[in-house]
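Service request form, structural biology core

Requester: graduate student, group of Dr. S.
Request type: structure prediction, single chain
Budget code: on file
Notes: please return the result as C-alpha cells.

Sequence provided:
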Amino acid sequence: MMNNETLAKMLEECGVNLYDTEVTTEFDKRIFRLYIMSKEGITLDKCQEVSRILSPIFDLEPPLEGEYFFEVSSPGIERKLTKPEHYLYSIGEKVKIKLNNKEKIIGTLEAFSDNIVSLTLEKDEKMQISLNDIDKARTYFEW
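Core staff response, request fulfilled:
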C-alpha cells in the first residue's frame, strides 16, 4: 500500500501539496478522500486532474485494502489544523483555537516554529501557544 510520503511527492509533481487524507464511510460506501492545497488555490479542474493522474496508480497500488471510492477535494476555507504542517500552510489566516482548559481564542496565525503557535489577537495583542496546550484548532472565516 502507498504511504503518505510517496503520495506527497506525486502530488508535488502535479503542482499541489498533500494537506490530509481521510477514510470515511458514507451511505455504506468507504471513501478514500485526498485533500490538496496550493498557493494559487484549488479548482474543480485541478481536483479532476489529480484524480485522473492518481486513479490508474491506485489501481496498481491502492491507498487502502478492499473496495473504496476515491475523491480529491480542497480542505475548504475553514479547515481543521491537526498536524504541524497544517499550521505552516495557514500562516496569515484567522484561526480559532480551543485550549485543553476549554478557553477559546481567535486570532491571526503569524508564525509556527518548534511546536509554538504565534498569534496576533485583537488590539495587536501577541500570544504564543504550545501545540501541547491545544485541544482543537481550525482556520476561521468571518462571514
